[in-house]
């Protein structure tokens, strides 16, 4: 099943009959499309070029793929012309993109998007990465990224768990995963991880997790609850000490986060936050997965100290062999959203991949 998103593009002329959108999916490089609402035809403005991409990428016809033209009474010659001229490339013949519904702890079905290469993937023998966020009603980004191809071509599985607390079909998906119901999002994420292993997508001891900002709250809590489920994790600008941060109203986002996570000044909400807070619930004298924590010194949204104190406590609490596998990398110049520039982003991504390869013990040859 092909999972795709259609987002509004740059539409500066309100009087124009042409509406611009950006089509993207894990297997479709971003395509900018103009839709003429008067003629009901599509035209492709640009598609991202992918260097070193598989040679068997399919050319898709926009008139065929977005097959609404015939039902809207388009004249046959206009439709045929649109089909003939407007084509995009996708890689669905090279990489599988599947959407599954995973049953969570309370019977709710959680969307899970799974991306892999049928040629390189081996059932129950492949390493995997599970992405999660689950906060502020934000939909997890599953758009095209060319850097994933190097992992996919080596048999890795990349999955995206759209847990409660993030964006869904309606507002209730967010509301049933925040505040007093935050643990639902954590259980959703764990259920998706178990599904990948139980269904043979990922080898049992080869699952990793990646979270960013508030998504690290999700990952950190899951690591505490089910440390044996994950082999490694990457936490970027992580929100890990939620209890102490929300008790400090002088921090810039504390008051806004009361609506999302709860107010610890209220006893019931304090107890709820305390039950899953990643920093507070680190297990003493237990084994811990390998973790790469990246923080930014000038981060005004999540204090750099949250990453530093979490790493220090894990190193102090975990067994001696595990404590050496928890790494803190702090950028002394950037903020919450990182630095721009293609080469800086490539360097950061290469570091992340190198960590995962080493932590998972995977042979990349």
Molecular structure report:
The chain has 2 domains: 1-62 and 86-93, no CATH class; 96-360, Rossmann fold. The protein has 12 helices and 14 strands. It has helices spanning 62-65, 76-85, 149-152, 172-175, 182-198, 215-225, 242-246, 254-261, 267-276, 304-317, 320-323, 342-360, and strands at 5-8, 18-25, 28-36, 41-47, 58-61, 87-90, 96-103, 109-116, 128-132, 157-161, 207-212, 232-236, 290-296, 326-331. The strands form 3 sheets. The protein has an 8-stranded mixed beta sheet, with helices on both faces. The chain has a 4-stranded antiparallel beta sheet with strand order 1-2-3-4, with helices on one face. Helix 6 (215-225) links the parallel strand 11 (207-212) and strand 12. It is globular. It starts with a strand and ends in a 5-residue tail after the last helix. Residues 148-361 form the Peptidase S9 prolyl oligopeptidase catalytic domain. Belongs to the peptidase S9A family. Its EC number is 3.4.21.-.
Q: What is the fold's blueprint, element by element?
A:
Layout: E1 5-8, E2 18-25, E3 28-36, E4 41-47, E5 58-61, H1 62-65, H2 76-85, E6 87-90, E7 96-103, E8 109-116, E9 128-132, H3 149-152, E10 157-161, H4 172-175, H5 182-198, E11 207-212, H6 215-225, E12 232-236, H7 242-246, H8 254-261, H9 267-276, E13 290-296, H10 304-317, H11 320-323, E14 326-331, H12 342-360
Parallel strand pairs: 9-10, 9-11, 11-12, 12-13, 13-14
Antiparallel strand pairs: 1-2, 2-3, 3-4, 5-6, 7-8, 8-10
Helix pairs in contact: 5-6
GO molecular function, one term: serine-type endopeptidase activity
Enzyme class: hydrolase
GO cellular component, one term: chloroplast
């Amino acid at each position: 099943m092909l999972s795709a998103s259609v987002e509004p593009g740059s539409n500066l002329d309100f009087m124009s009959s042409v509406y611009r959108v950006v089509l993207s999916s894990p297997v479709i490089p971003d395509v900018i499309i103009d839709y003429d609402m008067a003629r009901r035809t599509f035209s492709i403005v640009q598609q991202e070029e992918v260097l070193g991409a598989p040679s068997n990428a399919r050319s898709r016809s926009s008139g065929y793929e977005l097959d609404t033209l015939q039902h809207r009474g388009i004249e046959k010659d206009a439709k045929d012309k649109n089909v003939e001229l407007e084509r995009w490339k996708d890689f669905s013949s090279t990489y599988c993109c599947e959407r599954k519904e995973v049953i969570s702890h309370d019977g709710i079905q959680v969307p899970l998007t799974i991306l892999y290469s049928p040629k390189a993937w081996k059932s129950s023998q492949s390493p995997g990465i599970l992405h999660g966020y689950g906060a502020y009603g934000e939909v997890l980004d599953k758009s095209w990224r060319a850097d994933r191809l190097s992992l996919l071509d080596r048999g890795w599985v990349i999955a995206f768990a759209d847990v409660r607390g993030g964006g869904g079909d309606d507002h209730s998906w967010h509301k049933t995963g925040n505040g007093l119901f935050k643990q639902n999002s954590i259980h959703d994420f764990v259920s998706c991880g178990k599904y990948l292993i139980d269904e043979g997508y990922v080898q049992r001891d080869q699952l990793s997790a990646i979270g960013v900002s508030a998504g690290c709250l999700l990952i950190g809590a899951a690591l505490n609850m089910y440390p044996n489920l994950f082999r490694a994790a990457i936490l970027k600008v992580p929100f890990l000490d939620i209890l102490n941060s929300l008790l400090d109203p002088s921090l810039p986002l504390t008051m806004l986060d009361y609506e999302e996570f709860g107010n610890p000044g209220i006893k019931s909400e304090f107890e709820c936050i305390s039950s899953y807070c990643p920093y507070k619930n680190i297990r003493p004298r237990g084994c811990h997965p390998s973790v790469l924590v990246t923080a930014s010194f000038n981060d005004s949204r999540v204090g750099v100290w949250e990453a530093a104190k979490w790493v220090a406590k894990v190193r102090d609490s975990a067994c001696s062999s595990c404590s050496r596998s928890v790494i803190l990398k702090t950028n002394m110049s950037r903020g919450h959203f990182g630095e721009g520039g293609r080469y800086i982003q490539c360097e950061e991504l290469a570091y992340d991949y190198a960590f995962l390869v080493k932590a998972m013990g995977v042979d990349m040859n």
